Amino acid sequence: MTEPPRKRMVRLPTGGSDEGRAKPARLKTAKQRTPSSQAWLERQINDPFAAKARAHGYRSRAAYKLIEIDDKFHFLKPGVRVIDLGVAPGGWTQVAIERGVTHIAAVDLLPVDPMPPAHILQMDFTDPECGPMLIDLLGGPPDLVLSDMAPNTVGHRQTDHLRIVGLIEVATAFAISVLKPGGAFAIKAFQGGEVGDLIQKLRLDFASVKNVKPKASRADSSETYIVATGFKGRRDAPDAGA
């Protein structure tokens, strides 16, 4: 007597979310792409933080870097004034708004879709007119300056390194010149001798300076974040050291 066919005990998967586990995806075609751009695209597709960002409506995976930083330092809250340097595409400002910040001024070289109530400038932050414009849009000095800026690279290691260092120096000088006493500063940096120099410099002006590597920063990246809190006030102010 012939046995009836056995029922399948395990069903094939029928779907899933952007956050579910999946076999690493490969792009079907690499036509007109360089190997480096092909690798970057495949990494984006398979990146769990990029998938979470898509699922949760964040404009970039960088949102999770600021979420982790703020969960530790708690500087995003209703009533504070925030300046976001290098805002594009907007992930950090999204997080600030989500956490109750209503006074935000931001800037980037690239165009950024509106994010009310944030005021967004499209201009070069190193333009001397940019800083005063940000303060004017904010309605006063900030409690927090955020910088996720990175320079446009040219592929020449030494030139690109100098651009990174220069941008960090300009952002740091800006933060120290505009922050309210007690304020905070968080900036993207890259592991190297300059990080140690930056930490030592910031310790002159802030009560606490920490080096933070968020989980959303890729393990193979030299990217890190320096978080300085408890701004002591401008040393050249009339009552400084009084």
Structural domains: how many: 1
Which structural class do you get from the secondary structure elements?
alpha/beta
Fold-level CATH name: Rossmann fold
CATH architecture: 3-Layer(aba) Sandwich
Give, in order, the helices and strands. Answer: HHHEHEEHEHEHEE
Main sheet makeup: 7 strands, mixed
Give the rounded overall mean pLDDT: 82
In short:
By secondary structure, this protein is α/β, with parallel strands linked by helices. The protein has 7 helices and 7 strands. Helix 4 (91-98) links the parallel strand 1 and strand 2 (103-108).
Q: What this model shows, in words?
A:
This protein has one domain (60-231): Rossmann fold, CATH 3.40.50.150. 33% of the residues lie in helices and 17% in strands. The chain contains 7 helices and 7 strands; from the N terminus they run H-H-H-E-H-E-E-H-E-H-E-H-E-E. The protein has helices at 35-46, 48-56, 63-73, 91-98, 130-138, 157-178, 193-202; strands at 81-85, 103-108, 119-122, 144-147, 184-190, 206-212, 223-231. It has a 7-stranded mixed β-sheet with strand order 3-2-1-4-5-7-6, sandwiched between helices. Strand 4, helix 6 and strand 5 form a beta-alpha-beta unit. Helix 3 crosses helix 4.
